[in-house]
């Protein structure tokens, strides 16, 4: 079925947003927005961003180093460390690292986001059925809303921050920040400034949340999975130790030439549950499926789980097996069914950023450190939903003991 006939299902994607690219249902508007933003979503753009990525990866590694130097200290919560990495990459990507206005680099966006993301999506399961529930926030006192939904604090702050950032940009001149995504965005598309900058606020929040959480999630999954098989960790370390280039500064384009690292990241991302929602689309024409005719307007869903968990494609799908990606006879088929970023015109724009974060993070960690899950908790972590978008409320994340290799 041609992608041109498919639209996103507005009912499913109701998050109380209507202006961010993720929820633009109008095809023409979406195409225009995508074209405006496309430079920043190309792999090429990330060549220029390498110094920034190196700084953020170095900052991530310093947390591991501190933990390794103090073996008696409490375990390192890598779920949080990875989300913080995602947060900083997104902040730099959106605003640039030289932004000096209010709420700039001193602001840790990850603080409230840690507690906010999951309630938001849990709430979406209700608000999509009962849209009026979304307006609950406008009639509830701030203190009560923020108690129920800590995201309220974060949202309110961004709502105040974005108009100030736009004003500073206009007042102070454009030269300093003109590479950062946010400024390109508001320059290219006057619609972002309309309705008291609501579209710009929504785009900022969507990118910040989506990018941060999915990077954190992918890295947590890759780390968790490799810890289920210590021999894989050893093998990865050996490959990284002998890499023919400096891992500290190597971009994804170089790192993907390391076969075992490549296999580990592919397999870790395959097994994460973050991208496993329904991704429903509506076809504007009737669809013939075998003997069934689905009327135009029927929502049709496809989830990556249909492939990623299929025994016939990924033999023993719930076991972490990087080696399956090294079997040259099969790899083409696996590639065809590996689909975490979606397909077609609505597929993920953040893929190049995600690759930089995951490959560079994994390479720099496992070259230097040997990790072990804190306590005997592998199964508990899984049961608590560590790999789900919505872990149980009591899930504290993946905590590891960090040691040096002998
Ligand atoms: C491993 C990490 C990631 C995975 C698995 C992932 C997965 C996905 C998937 C499956 C979609 C399609 C969703 C749908 O149609 O409902 C999507 C869309 C999107 N993603 Fe990602 N994503 C990741 C990282 C990122 C990052 C880092 C960003 C940074 C900004 C990002 C930005 C977006 C945007 C803007 C869209 C909407 C595209 C459109 O509708 O035109 N993603 N992502």
Give an account of the 3D structure:
- This protein has a single domain (3-404), classed as Cytochrome P450 (Cytochrome p450, Orthogonal Bundle), CATH 1.10.630.10.
- Strand 4 and strand 5 form a beta hairpin.
- The chain contains 17 helices and 8 strands.
- The longest helix is centred in the middle third of the chain and has 34 residues, at 194-227.
- The strands form 3 sheets. A 3-stranded antiparallel sheet has the order 1-3-6, with no helix packed on it. The chain has a 3-stranded antiparallel sheet with strand order 2-8-7.
- The protein has helices spanning 27-37, 45-48, 50-69, 78-95, 110-127, 136-139, 142-148, 151-172, 181-188, 194-227, 230-241, 252-255, 259-271, 305-308, 331-337, 351-368, 378-383; strands at 6-8, 76-77, 281-283, 287-289, 292-294, 299-300, 369-373, 399-404.
- The protein is 52% helix and 7% strand.
- The structure holds protoporphyrin IX containing FE.
- Protoporphyrin IX containing FE binds next to helix 10 and helix 16.
- The site of protoporphyrin IX containing FE has 23 residues, from helix 10 and helix 16.
